[in-house]
Structure formats: structure tokens, C-alpha cells
Amino acid sequence: MSDRLITHLRHVDLAVPDYAKQLEFYTSMWGLEKENTDDGLAYLAAAGSPEQYSVRLRAADEKRLDLVSFGAESPEHVDELAQRLGTQGVQLVSEPDKLQTPGGGYGFRFFDNDGRTIEVSSDVEVRQHRKVEEGESVPVKLSHVVINSPNPEETVAWYEKHLSFALSDTLHSPHVGKVMWFMRTNPQHHSFAIARGPHVSLHHASFEMRGIDEYMRGTGRLLRAGVEKIWGPGRHLAGNNTFSYFLDPHGNTVEYTTELERLDEDSWHPHLYDFSDPEVTDQWGTANPMDEFIAAKSFNDPDRGSFVAPPV
Question: Which residue ranges does the record assign to the VOC domain (predicted)?
């Protein structure tokens, strides 16, 4: 799309009451690397990613999603997007400026229609990363972020209008209607998705593994350690990616995935998939059946951060 100024997903930032426990989980268990730490702040990188960090943890009294960060190609595109959003009545949290986070760069923040803080930046210094080796069950990169919205149709329309995200596929059922919209900002099937939920919250954050073997090894490591598994292992139809969903110590859902589909954007037409068909939710048939109890786990707690910008 000629007016698409966002190129990719950078990181997801979480506020956590039990900072030490979350830091231990994401490094020792989930496989992220402690790249930078400050007083009550931890910047955690994925081994194979050029991004400075994929997850930021911030010690806080209340659990919340601090922000979701996306990349842009240049400072000019950052300025153009900020100007566009301002003229469209979007509330800016900060004006474009030099970033004070690891890797620097140039960016700004704003609220989406549900009050989530979104950051867009360019010129962030590339991190010294490496090729993840065969058999190494650590995340290569942050794959995608999914959010819950009580007004998902409005939220989908907001991201299409203001950020030029494109719809890849939609999940529905005859009983509850449409429940999830997969959205892209590059040929990857989705970097972002919007789920119908009872309140504003994080649905899940997903991490790309090197391949099927590494994905299964990582899944097995968490199972052996007694981490609560919600759903998986299996393979979705929409996006054709594998999935294993777990809960972090604060009840946020995190996913190991691999082989997410890349689309020919010029010829792609979105599907409307009926998720009551078991082949849609899991092509392999290996995952526990999707039901309302599994779905409720990913509703998460109501986010206290709506229209309240994180302090850092």
C-alpha cells in the first residue's frame, strides 16, 4: 500500500507487579536475553532479532499493557504519520523526538481508539544478533501481538483508517459471529490481531521459533517445568502457523509459534473461517479442543492503562 508508513512490529511492553518473578520467567524459562536493565526496567531481546528488545518489563503496582511498538522506514515517515494522525483527531501522547530507550531512534506515541498506547519509531540502532542454531529452543523474534477489544469492529476500522493495516483473514462462528481479525503491515500474515473480548486487554504475545523441532522442544521444556499450558501444540489454518499457548506468572498469554505464512499482498483475498470447524483451529488435531474455558484464559484482566500513558 502506497500510504502504509508502518513497516513491522518492534516490541511489546508490560507493567508487572512481581517484577523479579516475571524477569525470571521470561529469561530462564521463555528464553529471552536480558539486554539492558535499569531501576525497575528490563529490556529483553530475542536472540535472532535485530530489534534492541522484544519485551520490556516495568515494575509497577498494577499489571497492564504499557504499549505496542512498531517500526517505520525513516524519520520523515514518522513525522508524516504523526501529522496525519493529528489532523485526523487522534490523541498524541508525545510529539516525534529522539527516543531515550536502548538503541535510541526517533519516534512518538499515541492512543488508539480503545486507549492503548502505540509507539512508532525509526532509526533505532540495530542490535548485534545471531542465527539461532539447530535444536536451540529460544525465540528468534517477536512474531505478533493480539489485543482484546470490546468494540472490535470499530478497532479494526481504526487501524485500517489511521495506520493502513490490511485485513488478512477473519474468524467467526454461526453462534457468536466474528471473533478475531488478523491484520498485517507487511507480507507476514499478521503482525497484529484484534479479538472480541469483554474488556480492553492483551490477548497474547507470540514468539517465532527457528523451526518445528525447536518449537516442540520449547513447548516440552515449559510443560516439564509445570508452566500452565492453555492450548496446543497444534497448527492454525489462518496463517498456517503452529501454536502453543502458555500463561506467564501474571496471567498474560504468551505463544511459541513458527512458519507463519507470508502472503502475496497483490493477489491475497481475506478468508472468513468458521472456527467451530476443528480443522480451522487446529489442522493437525493434536491440540486440546477450543472451548469457552480456553477462550476465557486469554481475556486476561481488564487493562488499567486505557488512555493513561506509561510513565516511561
Answer: 8-123, 141-259
Q: Are residues 77 and 178 in the same domain?
A: no
CATH of the domain at 168: 3.10.180.10
Q: CA-CA distance, 74 to 244, in Å (whole number)? A: 35
Let me know: does 234 contact 287? Beta carbons within 8 Å: yes
- Tell me which residue of 166, 209, 162 sits closest to 187, measured CA to CA: 166
Q: How many domains does the chain have?
A: 2
Instruction: Note whether residue 221 is domain-resident.
Output: yes
pLDDT tens per residue across span 100-121: 999 999 999 999 999 999 999 9
Count of residues in the chain: 312
Domain-embedded: residue 95: yes
In a domain, residue 305? The reply is no
Q: Which of these, 184, 230, 155, lies nearest to 7 by C-alpha position?
A: 184
Domain region containing 191: 141-297
Q: What is the pLDDT of residues 16-30, one digit of tens each?
A: 999 999 999 999 999
Prediction pTM value: 0.97
Last residue of a domain, one of 77, 95, 122: 122
The burial class, CB within 10 Å (0-12 / 13-18 / 19+), for 291 is: exposed
**131: in domain:** no
